[in-house]
Every structure is written in C-alpha cells, then in structure tokens.
Amino acid sequence: MRSENVFFSHREGFIKKQSGFTLIEIVVALLVISIALGAVISTTASSVDMADHIRNKTIALWVAKNYLSEMAAEKKWPDTGKTSAGIEMNKHIWMLQSNIIQTANTNMKKVEVRVFFEDKDKQPLLSLTGFINRPVLNRSMKR
Fold this sequence. Notes:
Elements: E1 6-9, E2 13-16, H1 23-73, E3 81-89, E4 92-102, E5 108-116, E6 126-133
C-alpha cells in the first residue's frame, strides 16, 4: 500500500497535497537572479571599457613612436621648444604635443612626446621620451 499525503476537506472529501513553489519563493528566486545578472552586466561593461582604453593607449603609442621615428629619419636638426599637432591614425585625430630640449651633449636632443585622445583632455593618454642625434651629412668615403 502506498502512502500519500492527503488532506480531508468537508466539501470535497479527500484531496492530494499540492506541491510547488509559493509566490514568495518565486519572488525571492527572481530577486537573486536579477542581482546576479546585474553583477554580470556590470563586469562585462567594465571589461569593454578597459579593452577600449587599452586599444586607445596602444594607438597613442604608435602615434608617439611614429613621430619620434620621423624626427630621427629627417635630415634636419629640429629647433628646441614646444610644438603641437593633430595626427590622424585609425580614423581619429590624435593631439600630439612635443617638447624638444637640448641635452648636455650638443649632438643630441631630448624629445618629450605627449599624446591626447581629445583636444580638450587635461591628462595625456600617453607620454614618451626619446632622443635624437644630430644628422650626419653624407661625406664621401675615402677609398
């Protein structure tokens, strides 16, 4: 003989006990799920923002290195002082500020480069320092 949970009702006789979730249990479960999903969404958004920031820093590094490489490749000796320019890379104009400083060695200058994502940014996205040598004029080699 099987044992079943039954209740006696005066109107209907014997009825089976119904099993399932109450409304409060369902509301609590939905609350827990919504909090967990909120945390997942927040973490995902933070990861996307960080990936975008790293991408921008990488491109800013390319802008600064290209600028230093072009200065080193030129055959003219740059004047000391500050300059600024807008450089296009990856479909965006990057604001670049450079400061050329004479070093103790008269054949070398220090170049400080700062790259900004927007013109109105107060903090540079990247700062890079390099050195360039005085260009050597082509002299005929002795044979």
